[in-house]
Amino acid sequence: MLSDAIACIGFSWAASPSCTELETIVLDWLGKAIGLPEEFLTFSEEASKTISSARQGDSETEIHNGKGGGVLQGSASECIFVCMLAARAQAIKRLRKLHPFIEEGVLLSKLMAYCSKESHSCVEKGAMMAFVKLRILEPDENNSLRGATLRQVMEQDEAMGLIPFFVSTTLGTTSCCSFDNIPEIGLVCQQFETVWLHVDAAYAGSAFICPEFRSLMNGIQYADSFNLNTNKWLLTNFDCSCLWVKDRFKLTCALVVDPLYLQHGYAGAVDYRHWGIPLSRRFRSLKLWFVLRTYGISGLQKYIRHHCQLAKRFERLVKSDNKFEVLNDVKMGLVCFRLKDDPTNKLNKKLLETINESGKLHMVPSLVHDKYVIRFCVVAEHATEDDIDYAWKIIKETAVTVVYNEQELTEKREEQVDEVFELSERKKKDDLAYRRSFFVRMVSDPKIYNPIIARSSPGSRRHTHLSSMDDDIHDPLSIATSDTEDTMTQPASSWISWPLAFLFQGVFDDKEGNDVPVRFRHLATKMHFKSKSKSPEHLATEENKSRRNSPVFPRKSSYVKTDNESNMQK
To answer: Which of 106, 158, 159, 432 has the maximum number of C-beta atoms within 10 A of its C-beta?
Structure first.
């Protein structure tokens, strides 16, 4: 509130000396507190002794004996972007000396930046805005970018005519708080003259205020720039992102625009308008100054350690339940966990959605080893063990409900699947029965498969009637013959097909009183076909008649077929 009430516009030392110089001082304080090498600081130990004399009005005294320094940016995204711009400017400057006749746009198209798959998305966004290529590299099994991976890719790109110029590494990745191998990567970058190595420690950097965590930043001496966000884990209100560089002149050369109306007579002072994108700047350093003076280094260390202990407590609670698993190495305040036996990630997504909708907790998801995880991060300043236990209780209760509901839903789906399968099987059986019945009716009734017969039939289904049918036979299903029947006489109509009628004609020729039982499946009954005795002359006549009516035996050329016979033969 005080920094806003003062309402200074600190774009230069002349506009607000206190805003400018306090920013320089508190960033040196914090840089020393987290163990940054002296190369990143504005004042060395010797230079600090001369500050008091410079404050007494001698504006010509140069108090900045080092090339490094720090600046407060709005976010880590700004820190990474301005460092990428500085690296691009340095690479183009060097390449223009080597190739003075090549256009700058051609040289720009050759530049290649690198980062890990676990790096924050702001690296990719920065490359888009800087119009440079970016190659995203695969980390190892611990989600750490290794030097061998980087060297192999950079050598391949160099062989293809590309120019490596920027490498962004991460200490404390967003997804699982993993740490890139800075010592290995730093040695690789030393082999390429134009490469700028940046270290992004937006979250984990605050923990380096505790000496026991500083081993995680080994290799920082190889870096050209380093950033952390005090508004993430160091009790400072947004926005307050700290950026340190080894050589501030490389940074400002890429961003200097110095019109006459912004110039002043204090040549030895720092103008932070050359350190970032915006011209006007808020009094951010006052916020950080209050935090450092209120808590002190020991108070901030206690705060960080307490959060790490709470995270370890939550990790133990998760591991004590065999339904859950932890997928990251818990080194600080972040725990990545998930429900086991969830290959589709459906349960974990539902669990997180239900918890967030309840308003009791808020967590966000991420991917670790291509698995969906839920990120539990201790962030409340006054969080206690009871808060952790309460959070775990909410998670367990919600998980039981989600799993139970999913099981019920699965059972209902299985029942529905069974019902659908049963209906499908029943339909198949019905279709099969219908097809069999239809086939039997096809054999028995030519009108099923030949509509011409149906049209030629004068009425509904009638049994076979020959013109000389014997009046003594009273069985309506009997097929009778007559000695006096003319060989050219045809049945008026018949519902017994030609193939079946042809077979029956041969059966009745053996002896008198032949009884042939025939069962029709679609009628579920048995029928008996009888014949009377016939003379040899009559048998010969019937044989000739059968040959003429049969679709199997060839017809004589002299025999004239009726239209009905032709259609039935077809």
So the answer is: 158
DSSP character at residue 540: H
Question: For residue 76, what are the β-bridge partners?
Answer: none
Which one-letter amino acid corresponds to residue 337?
F
Measured between alpha carbons, how far is residue 308 from residues 233, 311, 330, 389, 396 in Å? 11, 5, 9, 15, 22
Query: What does the pLDDT average to over 315-332?
Result: 91
Q: How far apart are CA 155 and CA 132, in angstroms?
A: 18
Mean pLDDT of the chain: 78
**pLDDT band for position 465 (50/70/90)?**
very low
Give burial (CB, 10 Å; 0-12/13-18/19+) of 12: buried
144 C-beta neighbours (distance < 10 Å), count: 20
Higher pLDDT, 414 or 297: 297
Taking 3-state DSSP, the helix, strand and coil percentages for the chain, each rounded to the nearest 5, stand at: 50, 15, 40
Residue (of 65, 64, 78) closest to 281 by Cα position: 78
Residues 6+ apart with CB under 8 A from 120: 76, 77, 80, 170, 173, 174, 200, 202
Q: Is the pTM of this model over 0.70?
A: no
Q: What is the mean pLDDT of residues 531-553?
A: 51
Distance CA 208, CA 395 (A): 31
Q: What is the DSSP string of 418-452?
A: HHHHHHHHHHHHHHHHHHHHHHHHHHH-GGGT-HH
Nearest to 193 by CA among 101, 94, 116, 84: 94
CB–CB of 479/508 below 8 Å? Answer: yes
Asked whether 441 and 448 are in contact (CB, 8 A), the reply is yes
Out of 208-217, 383-392, 468-477, which region has the weakest mean confidence (pLDDT)? 468-477
Calpha distance 272→16 (Å, rounded): 11
**Once rounded to an integer, what is the mean pLDDT over residues 550-557?**
45
No. of helices (H) and no. of strands (E), the chain: 18, 13
Residue 553 pLDDT level (bands cut at 50, 70, 90):
very low
Predicted confidence at residue 535, as pLDDT, reads 52
Q: Are residues 149 and 138 in contact, defined by beta-carbon separation less than 8 angstroms?
A: yes
Q: Judge whether 278 and 12 are in contact, CB under 8 Å.
A: no
| Contact status, residue 491 vs residue 465, Cβ threshold 8 Å | yes
Assign 409 a pLDDT band (cuts: 50, 70, 90): low
Our CA angle for 206, 210, 214, nearest 5°, is 85
What type of residue is 18?
S
Residue 109 structure tokens = 């198209």
| Cis amide bond preceding 239, omega within 30 | yes
How does DSSP assign 335-354, residue by residue?
EEEEESS-TTSHHHHHHHHH
